[in-house]
Amino acid sequence: MNITDVRVRKVAKEGKMKAVVSITIDEEFVVHDIKVIEGEKGLFIAMPSRKATDGEYRDIAHPINSSTRDKIQTIILEKYQEAVAEEEAAV
């Protein structure tokens, strides 16, 4: 699996959510609405989710194992940091 495109849309308002990201896998499959969140231990990603009838949120798309999650998270956070750096350089 190769992530062939990452599109970062920064969130302008204050809060824990810093960006919403879309990734393209192998130039064939897109996953939208991955969130970049500022947590107590730093940035992490939250996969797209939906509120179930019991009020709980459940991921609607997610990696099967932790190594794949780590790979996706690393790539997304690198692209997010690049977007932040570009924005700061433009100011």
From TrEMBL:
Query: Which Pfam families does this entry report, sorted A to Z?
Result: SpoVG
InterPro entries reported in the protein's UniProt record: SpoVG, SpoVG_sf
Q: What's the domain of life for this entry?
A: Bacteria
What keywords appear on the UniProt entry? Cell cycle, Cell division, Septation
Q: What does this protein do?
A: Could be involved in septation.
Which NCBIfam families does the entry link to? PRK13259.1 (NF009749)
Family in the record: Belongs to the SpoVG family.
Write down what this protein is called.
Answer: Putative septation protein SpoVG
Q: What is the species listed in this Swiss-Prot or TrEMBL entry? A: Blautia faecis
